[in-house]
Specification:
Blueprint: E1 9-11, H1 16-20, E2 31-33, H2 41-50, H3 55-61, H4 67-75, H5 82-94
Antiparallel strand pairs: 1-2
Helix pairs in contact: 2-4
Length: about 100
C-alpha cells in the first residue's frame, strides 16, 4: 500500500442536520478541504524533477529563461509565473522526468 496524498478536511457541523435529513447529497457540500501549499503538485513532483538535471540543461531547454528563476525554482524558494511553470513542466515531460 502506498499513500499518494493526505488531504485534511473539516466537517461543517452546521450542515450535519441537513445531511441527516437527506437535503445534502454530496460530501463536497459538507466538507471543507484544507490544502497544504507545501504538498501540492509543484512541490511534490516538479521541484524534484527540476533537481534531476544540471542547471545549464534547464537553461538550454527552457529557451534561455533567467538563471535566477531556474535556481529559485529548483530550490523551491519561489514559484515562477504560471507561464514559466507550464514551460518547465512541459520541458520536464519532454525530457522524461515525469
Amino acid at each position: 500500500m502506498r499513500i499518494d496524498s493526505i488531504t485534511p478536511i473539516g466537517k461543517e457541523s452546521n450542515s450535519l442536520e441537513e445531511v441527516q435529513a437527506g437535503l445534502v447529497h454530496e460530501e463536497q457540500n459538507v466538507y471543507t478541504v484544507y490544502t497544504d501549499p507545501r504538498r501540492d503538485y509543484w512541490s511534490r513532483e516538479v521541484v524534484p524533477a527540476l533537481q534531476k538535471l544540471p542547471l545549464n540543461v534547464w537553461e538550454r531547454e527552457s529557451g534561455g529563461k533567467s538563471r535566477r528563476i531556474l535556481i529559485d525554482a529548483r530550490l523551491g524558494r519561489r514559484r515562477p509565473h504560471r507561464e514559466n511553470q507550464e514551460l518547465l513542466i512541459s520541458v520536464a515531460k519532454k525530457l522524461g522526468l515525469f
